[in-house]
Amino acid sequence: MNSPRVPPTRGLTAIDGAMALIVLLLVVQMWLLSATLDAYLAGHGDAALPGAVISGVLFLACGGLYLFVIRLEKLRRVAGAADAGSSQPLATEASINRPSPAGDRPRSLS
Hints:
mainly alpha
């Protein structure tokens, strides 16, 4: 019995979501660093250490998400290479948009 076909876009949703989360975390980190620097330069030195610690945590979270994306992409490529050797070819955009041969056209009723 053949295993069910996995679409070639499998995993792309997770990658897109992780990349969007990375962008959001980096924006928050930039805002946090600018607010912390502004507070430090205004003479509030007690805000520098918590801001630096939280920024480090955000950096590690972005690094972890990046490694997750890299691992997912590798798994997707391995699965794609395994699917390439199967007996059923994948439908590509070129094969879907290709005109059919003349014998496959429906006959007109006139």
